[in-house]
Amino acid sequence: MGWVSIPDPPPAAEDLRGLARSLRQLLEFGTQALLEDAEPAEVALRISGHLGCELTAIVLVAERFPKWEHVNVQRGVDAYLRTQRDDPEWFGTPGSGRHPHEDILSLISSPASQFVMFRGPRAHLIRGGDAVSGGRGAASYGTAAVGPEENTEVVTFGLVAAAAPDGAPVVIGIRDESQFGAPVCNLEILAADREAAAATRDEIGRLMRVHDVFRGQVLSFTESEHHGNELVSFLPRPAITAQDIVLPGGVLDSIEQHIIGIAEWSQDLLSAGQHLKRGLLLHGPPGTGKTHTVRYLTARLAESTVILLTGRSIRFIDAAAALARRLQPSMVVLEDVDLVATDRDYTPDGNPLLFSLLDAMDGIGADADVTFVLTTNRADILESALADRPGRVDLAIEIPRPDAGCRERLFRLYIRDLAVDADLEPVVAGTEGVTASFVKEMIRRTVLASLRAGERPPVLRDAHFTAVLAEMNGERQSLTRSLLGVDAGEDAGAGADPDGRPVCHRRFR
For the chain, which terminal residue's Cβ has fewer other Cβ atoms within 10 angstroms, N or C? Predict the structure, then answer.
């Protein structure tokens, strides 16, 4: 008879839990023993040696900025350091940037900061000095925009030895949390004396404003897909002149007098006790030239900061208004404001975004050289408090569909140097009620018609205009006409006279 092997009973669950607790305690005791025996890290010794005090005596003065101000923090620190030395030496700490919720003082003063821990099935500890030679890491760098097509290098985690305005030693730190935490950038000053640290921070803040990279730029707020935070983007300034603007007589003059005229007489107006803040509402059908007019003002105000908000980015109005006041003279443009500023009767619970917009316009200050320009396709449903109340919008200008004179100017503007073998008078008459966008698209299609006919270079002929206008007024183009600002129930002239020239069969209703 053979032997039968009987397996030992499996350990009880409580025994396993007890073993796990014992192992955890053993790990904690071992970690504490290592920390108690650890020597101060080289970076801590370097900082305390420069400041001339023990780590426990170091004070920290910090200021937090939104991520998009990182480049200005860097410019302020660079300008501050230039007053003291030509070759600042930035340095970091082991594992820098991996602890977004700890300030620099905590990172260098805590013994635990000398170790990098790897958690998991093979948990173990290594000394920070083993990971980075000498217990001191190199500073970390990134890039940030300083213009539409230009970037600069910024410190994302680093420290540099310096002196306070009164000569006391300080250490300046820049820490970008966005990679591992919140979308913010921190300026942190270490010193043995709080007053020295605060004075250093304040002077860097002053230099940030002097060297502000946003001043005189065209900016827009966008949203980061990673954190949902606001980001500031640089846009090129348009090159548009008054000759590129086609509006009814006197309209552009009124706009310029209200926007640019106040800017040119700003000091005299202030001396006379008059306010500088102004609001302009441009309203009219889509495609009539509201945005084009805004682009002209942006080009005309070449020395002003312009901040563009459109669509969902209008929710950043508070940050945009604060930036506009800081960088005045400035202009804040809110396009298609009817999307967020409709009358409160249309929304049962009110409109929080509308309230933010109104508060921002009210809070900018009457003495600020700031212009708010709002555009809308639906002035009829615009919040009355926004459109009518003095101090928010004080000039409303309608941008209508172009009359015959304006349409002729538009055709000649968009034709420019193209060859024309056509009588434009019937073409102008046959497009009554269309918008500037419609005319621009019609010219493009007419050029394509000439090219398809084998004409190189293209020549704009009567037959091309007739065919294109008939095509654009066809039933299949109803949505296109709507997108170009033509009402759904209205058509431009779609026929031709006996000589083949376009004429208007139906007038707009």
Answer: N
Which runs of consecutive H residues, i.e. helices, occur in 12-114? 13-37, 42-51, 70-82, 104-109
Give the residue numbers spanning the domain of 435: 404-503
Tell me how far apart the alpha carbons of residues 495 and 430 are, in angstroms, rounded to a whole number: 8
For 269, residues 6+ apart whose C-beta sits below 8 A from its C-beta are: 262, 275, 276
Is 350 domain-assigned? yes
Please give the distance of CA 423 from its chain centroid, rounded to a whole number.
Answer: 47
Same domain as 467, residue 323: no
Q: Report the alpha-carbon distance of residue 35 to residue 127 in Å, rounded.
A: 10
Looking at 398, 429, 452, the residue that finishes a domain is 398
In angstroms, the CA 306 to CA 300 distance is 11
**Residues 143, 162 within the same domain:** yes
Model's pTM, two decimal places? 0.77
How are beta strands 305-310 and 330-335 bridged, if at all?
Answer: parallel
Cα 284 off chain centre by? 27
**Burial class for 49, CB neighbours closer than 10 Å (0-12, 13-18, 19+):** exposed
Q: In this structure, are 316 and 302 located in the same domain?
A: yes
Give the chain's domain count. Answer: 3
Q: How does DSSP classify residue 10?
A: P
312 & 175 share domain: no
Same domain, 392 and 453: no
DSSP string, 265-318: THHHHHHTT----EEEEEE-STTSSHHHHHHHHHHH-TTSEEEEEEGGGGGGHH
Q: Measured between alpha carbons, how far apart are the two ends of the chain, in Å?
A: 110
CATH number of 408's domain: 1.10.8.60
The pair phi, psi for residue 494, each rounded to 5°, is: -120, 5
Same domain, 49 and 190: yes
**pLDDT tens digits, 395-446:** 889 999 999 999 999 999 999 999 999 999 999 998 888 899 999 999 999 9
What pLDDT score does 34 carry?
47
| pLDDT recorded at residue 14 | 75
User: pLDDT (tens digit, 9 = 90+) per residue, 476-500?
Assistant: 777 777 777 676 555 454 444 444 4
Same domain? For 439 and 478 the reply is yes
